[in-house]
Structure formats: C-alpha cells, structure tokens
Amino acid sequence: MTKPLEGIRIIDFTHVQAGPACTQLLAWFGADVIKVERPGSGDVTRNQLRDIPDADALYFTMLNSNKKSLTLDTKKPEGKEVLEKLIRESDVLVENFGPGALDRMGFSWERLNELNPKMIVASVKGFSDGHHYDDLKVYENVAQCAGGAASTTGFWDGPPTISAAALGDSNTGMHLAIGILTALLGRDKTGKGQKVAVSMQDSVLNLCRVKLRDQQRLERVGYLEEYPQYPHGEFSDVVPRGGNAGGGGQPGWVLKCKGWESDPNAYIYFTIQGHAWEPICKALGKPEWIDDPAYKTAEARQPHIFEIFKTIEDWLADKTKFEAVDILRKFDIPCAPVLTMKELANDPSLRASGTIVEVPHKKRGSYLTVGSPIKFSDLKPEVTASPLLGEHTEEVLASLGYSKQDIFNLREVKAV
Ligand code: COA
To answer: What does the pLDDT read at residue 278?
Structure first.
C-alpha cells in the first residue's frame, strides 16, 4: 500500500518534543523524514532521563520513530553545503530552535526561499512573531502558563497547576502538522512554498478556548454557574480554577470508588448529563429524586450538587471503578474509570487498535510507545524504531550524490 505522504521529503531540524512530535506524525503517514542532528551529541533527549546506560532514552525513542538520522554540523561551511543540497531536494523543513537560531546559522526564511521556492518552512516558537515575548525560549510548562492553561487548572485554594498532557509541546506539534499539510495542498495549487509558524502560547490558548468563553460570561453576569464556586462561593473578575468540574453544560466530578483509601486512582469521572437524570436516579436506587422539584432540573440541582455527588460516592463505596462503570454504562451515563499509565500500557483494546505499540529497537530490546491516534480506513500506520545517532548519514549523503571519498572527507573535518 502506498502511504499518503510517500514522496514528501522532510528535513527534520527539530529537537526535544514539540517539533519531533510533528515530524513523527508525518513520518507515520509516509513522509521521508531526515532528522538533522549535531555530530557527537544529537537531540538532547537522546541522553535525557536514560533508563538504560548507553541506549537512547525513551524520551527520544518515543518521539522519533520512523525517521532517519543524519549527523551534520550546520555551523561548518562543509555542513552548510550539504544542508543546502538537501534543501534544494526537499519539500519541507521543520525546526523548533530558539528564536533567531536558524537566521544565525545563515538559513533565514528569505535564504531558504531563495534556495528552494517550493519548500515549506515550518517553525515552532514559544511566542508568535512580533509578540512582546518573542525573544523568549520556551518549554512545555512555560507555555501552559503563558497560554492560560495554568491559571485555570487546579483547585481554587491551590496554586496555578500544570497539566500532565503536553499542551505546550506535542499539542503545538499537532497544530504545526496541520499547517504543513495545508501548505502542501496550497503548493499543489500555486506551485509555491510558504512559511508556516505556530507558537506554543497560541496552541495552548486554542485548547483553552472555553476558558475565554467563561471570561466573557463572567464579565457579563458576574458568576459561572457550572463552577464549584457557584452559588455559595465568590467570584473575582477572572476565570477561577474549577477543580474537577465539567467544562461544559453538564456538571461532573471525580468520585471515590471502593479502595480509594489505599489506591490513589480508585476513582471514576461521573457526569450528570441533563437528560440522563432519570437513568442516574434509577442506577443509584433513588427513584424519588426523578420528580422531586429540588432535584428535577439542572438549575435546581446546582446549589446542592456536592450533596448529590456525595450520595453517588456512597453508592460507589462497595464498587471498584471498573464495576461502577460496567453498571453505569447500562444506563447510558457518560463516565470512565481514572486509568493509570500501567493500566493503559496493558489495555488489550489499546494494543489491538495500535494506539499502544511495542517497537523493537537495536539497542533497547523493545519499548512501548503511543502509535497513531488517528485511524484511517485505508492506512494502518506502522511504527518503526527511532534511528541511532547518524544511522543514515551515509545513505542520505549518497542519495545527494556524495561519493564514499566525499563522505570520508566530511568525516575528517567532523562535519558529519
Ligand atoms: N549543527 C550545528 N549547530 C546546531 C545544530 C547542528 N546540527 N543543530 C542546532 N545547532 C545549534 C543552533 O544553531 C543553535 O545555536 P546558536 O544558539 O549559537 O545560534 C543551538 O544549537 C540550539 O539552540 P536552541 O534551539 O536555542 O537550544 P537550547 O537548548 O538553548 O533551547 C529550547 C532549547 C527548546 C528552549 C529552544 O530551542 C526553544 O525555545 N525552541 C522553540 C520553542 C520550542 O520548541 N520549545 C519546546 C521544545 S519541546
């Protein structure tokens, strides 16, 4: 089967997580992704948080599958020459260096466009061009703070809180992938490449869209009825942290199940969807609540929503999180167990769907990773191991027309 992105050559000048997540996705779908790395060291994540001495860290292997690795010192004239050749023969260049690094290397957008007017140049930065913080280097948590996620996550009596989900890094990479694919389609029509830029702040904010909704509602009416602060607590003039409250029109909360005293994840998320009130009452054995005016409507329930959650917790006390969900699913109640990484790693459904995959690796043996979360009817993305540092240097240079002697000479000056 030919893969949709086969024939698209991507220079992967990315490191850490945001950029690599983007190019990994494109590699799964068939693009020829050549990761350009500094000779000797490579992407910093090869060494970060190693669990096996002398083998690439999981941080690297889980973000760089299906790629080739070319070592190239792009600050040396010999290295620049190779890069220029590669640029002339590639469709996309993706980078997420600190602000100005590519320009300092001599590869500004203007220069890249001159070398290959059809090339798409895609960048991740912490802040967008022209933003008053556009000179800042940014990592995940910095972006979560700058993009509105931290101020709205956590409990009202605690500090701003970071999410474990990579809202700043991988999320930005996914935005960039959409931008690249759009620019490739655009190029089919115009024949021209273009610059695609995504900032981590913007990508986080895009996922915090409903919090900007809430800011405007708060300014208009002075309260937010779906937040735990309503109606007994106080609101200021900014969106508060809402703990585990549901973000939409249906209240929800994380509720204790059997064993919570010793198992920190013996919980389910329970949602009280308006039209599911009757099944909820039936599931809980509280049929008298169905028509009770104090419980009948969402508005009537809200002032004592925590008392309702407490009643549900009493019902959950003798049920594990899995037993509870098995009962509640029969009543069509939106809920799920709080799953640990261990449970997810061993989940047979996730293994069967290719969302959790085991990948053989030359040095590590095999490792688990998250495969494509996007499923197609005509494409089954296969995850192959991340490359060793410089594993494909010779192959890529030969494809650019370099002879064995040329490659030896480049090695002598430590350009590759
Ligand atoms: N050969 C020679 N030099 C190379 C090279 C190569 N193959 N690859 C990179 N370099 C150089 C760059 O030219 C740059 O040098 P310079 O600063 O002298 O111009 C340097 O290596 C890389 O710098 P930088 O990207 O700033 O690395 P850093 O470790 O100081 O900062 C980040 C890391 C992630 C904070 C920064 O890259 C950044 O803010 N990126 C944009 C936002 C982002 O993607 N952050 C999330 C990462 S998950």
So the answer is: 94
**How far is ligand 1, taken at its centre, from the CA of residue 62, in Å?**
20
pLDDT at residue 1 in the model: 62
Using an 8 Å Cβ cutoff, are 369 and 61 in contact? yes
Q: pTM of the full predicted structure?
A: 0.97
Indicate which atom in ligand 1 lies nearest the CA of residue 14. 44
Separation of CA 50 from chain center: 21
**Which parts of 65-169 fold into alpha helices (H)?**
77-88, 101-104, 109-115, 140-146
Q: Which residues are catalytic?
A: 169
Rounded Cα–Cα distance for residues 174 and 232 (Å) = 40
Protein residue with least CA distance to atom 6, ligand 1? 38
Contact between 176 and 197 under an 8 Å Cβ cutoff? The reply is no
Output the pLDDT for position 127. Answer: 98
CA distances for 302 relative to 130, 224, 268, 308, angstroms: 44, 11, 20, 9
Which DSSP string do the residues of 257-302 spell out, in sequence order? -TTTTT-TT-EEEEE--GGGHHHHHHHHT-GGGSS-TTTSSHHHHG
d(CA 25, CA 20): 9
Per-block average pLDDT, block size 10, for the chain (416 residues)?
93 98 98 98 97 97 98 98 98 98 97 98 98 98 98 97 98 98 98 98 98 98 94 95 88 97 98 92 94 93 93 97 97 95 98 98 96 97 98 98 97 97
Eight-state DSSP code of residue 56? -
> Does residue 30 line the site of ligand 1, with CB under 6 A?
no
- C-beta 97 within 6 A of ligand 1: yes
Q: 3-class SS at 211?
A: helix
Which residues have CB under 8 Å from 334's CB, separation 6+? 250, 252, 271, 273, 276
